[in-house]
Amino acid sequence: MYKILISQFGQYKKAAILTPVFTGLEALMELLIPFITSKIIDEGIQAGNLDKVYFYGGIMLVMAFFSLVLGVLAGKNAAEASSGFACNLRAKMYENIQTFSFSNIDKFSTAGLVTRMTTDVTNVQNAVQMILRIASRAPLVLLLSMGMCFFINAELSVIFLLAMVILAAALYIIMSKTTVIFKQVFSRYDDLNAEVQENVTAIRVVKAFVREDHEVGKFKKAAQNLYDLSVKAESRLAFNNPVMMLVIYGCMIALSWFGAQHIVIGDLTTGELTSMFSYVMSMMMSLMMLSMVFVMITMSAASCNRIAEVLEEKPDLTNPEMPVMEVADGRIDFKHVSFSYKHGSGEETLHDIDFHIDAGETIGIIGGTGCGKSSLVNLISRLYDADKGQVMVGGRDVRTYDMEALRNQVAVVLQKNVLFSGTILDNLRWGKEDATEEECKEVCRQACADDFIESFPDGYETWIEQGGTNVSGGQKQRLCIARALLKRPKVLILDDSTSAVDTATDARIREAFRNKIPGTTKIIIAQRISSVQDADRIMVLEDGQINGFDTHENLLKTNRIYQEIYETQQKGGGDFDQPS
Are 396 and 572 in contact (CB under 8 A)? Predict the structure, then answer.
């Protein structure tokens, strides 16, 4: 795990290496100052030698200046290394997420991924900065201070060894109790982000049903859970400072008592005792800083694990060694295909699906909710892989194609239409980056989107808000259809993509498909029979199996499920814009 995280320093490795170097030199300068101070006291002040005071004072000023410069350089490099590391880490996570198949994405919630790329990376960034500066400085200061103390008086230095053992034991107990709680804290962050995301995404529904108070209550509950765990963790960590101060003051008292006795005996000078006080404070402060590093590492350890899960996740779908780059035509074959979202669970979404579609055919798919319609078409563009059997496009198994080449020729307008912030032209050019404005207008005419686009004051330069919130559901669907048509695909799949469009417009879209893209295989998933009755053939799905696959007329004669759907929709008077 840590190996893959460390590799993300990339071009910032130099800054990461220079930081502890500058920090170490800065610490060395600071540690020599108390030693020089003892010389000023013993050889200058007490001896009444003003020249020595000036000499050693000058050395102290030079060392203080170098310490300042080295501290600035260490801080600059630490900031560059930690910020660059976080930037690379986010970029690598985002890059890896783009390779995920739908089944990979299903393992992580959207809120969880957002938390990992924001809160978790920030925690790790802060930990890295502390490690580069404090974790490299504190042990060095601790060891050098201890060495200087033993150099001055080995007997008194035993006090510090005992103090450090007591302090280390106390910190270990506190940290071990806190680590478990912090792991739970970050899962609560996921819950909190999920509440915010769900509410903001569905804010229109919340307001329409006057559920603001209910949503506020849910958010407060998630926030309270996070608060409770955070307080629990911080309460344990609150013992750090009292324990630390107890040990520091204990050392100071012991040093004052025994040090005074050594001065009276003549084994120790006043200057040496003064410098030992400074080194004691340096050692204790180093231990305090190390405890802070331990706290940050404890907090970030959970974040590291969560980040590593994303970085180490391998896409379920990969290209073969020698992928096929061209799709010959729009033929589609399913050869005894079975599929489940949880492989090996035994709960099959599709079971023994077997059919053949010729290039250029228009196929309708109809069936009840949850019968497997979307799952079936997702296999054609290889958004998922079948568990059993073969899915073939253009006479080849979809697993032999380069995935990008396959998906460029199998255009899918998904059930949940998504538009991105940008102009209408920007959104259309997702289908073809270098498409001309005339090409965009042509596909919009085919999708019956040109009328409403031209009614906007800015036409094709009209700005689309994030998620397409400033256009209607039907307008959004037609723009998504136009975007797919711009790819000039050999297979076009509409996954219930005209549900928000009136039947008159729906009929015009289907007529445009027949006239403008006759060679493209068209698969139309719909809830209403009027959207598919003109198709060459219609597939009826029930419980993940094909119940019927024939023309509209033949299904009305032979298929019970199709008959029931047709009669129900006819008795309901058809669609609102059709005469009953």
Answer: no
In the chain, the amino acid numbered 372 is G
Per the CB < 8 A criterion, the answer to whether 403 and 410 are in contact is: no
> According to DSSP H, which parts of 472-534 are helical?
473-485, 503-516
Q: Do 358 and 522 meet the contact criterion of CB atoms below 8 Å apart?
A: no
* 364 neighbors 531 (Cβ within 8 angstroms): yes
How does strand 491-495 pair with strand 521-525? parallel
288, two tokens: 């305090």
Rounded Cα distance between 297 and 299, Å, is 5
C-beta of residue 440 within 8 angstroms of C-beta of residue 460: yes
Is the model more confident about 84 or about 154? Answer: 84
Closest CA to 378 of 400, 410, 405, 425: 410
Q: Confidence band (pLDDT; 50, 70, 90) for 576? A: very low
For the segment 413-460, what is each residue's pLDDT rounded down to a tens digit? Answer: 877 778 888 999 999 999 888 899 999 999 999 999 998 999 999 999
The sign of the CA dihedral 536, 542, 547, 553 is negative
Round to whole Å and give the CA distance between 246 and 408: 69
- In sequence order, the β-bridge partners of residue 353 are 337
Query: What integer pLDDT is reported at residue 575 of this predicted model?
Result: 47
Long-range (24+ apart) CB contacts under 8 A made by 515-520 are 516/446, 517/446, 517/485, 517/492, 518/360, 519/329, 519/330, 519/359, 519/360, 519/490, 520/330, 520/360, 520/489, 520/490, 520/491, 520/492
pTM, two decimals, is 0.66
Specify the amino acid at residue 489.
P
Q: Report residue 316 as tokens.
A: 């379920």
Per-residue b/e over 284-308, b at no fewer than 16 CB within 10 Å?
A: bbbbbbbbbbbbbbbbbbbbbebbb
In 266-372, alpha helices (H): 270-312
Helix (H, G, I), strand (E, B) or coil at 389: strand
Distance CA 479, CA 485 (A): 10
**Radius of gyration (Cα) for the chain, nearest Å?**
35
Rounded CA separation 385/379 (Å)? 6
Would you state the pLDDT for residue 579?
Answer: 42
Task: Tell me the residue type at 410.
Answer: V
d(CA 468, CA 29): 60
Q: How far, in Å, CA of 286 to CA of 377, rounded?
A: 62
State pLDDT tens for residues 188-240: 777 777 778 777 777 777 777 788 888 888 888 888 888 888 888 777 777 77
Reduce the DSSP state of residue 104 to 3 states and report it.
Answer: helix
Report how far residue 377's alpha carbon sits from residue 119's, in angstroms, rounded to the nearest whole number: 37
* CA nearest to 319, candidates 401, 390, 261, 262: 401
Give the integer Cα–Cα distance in Å for 38 and 276: 9
Beta bridge partners of 537: 363
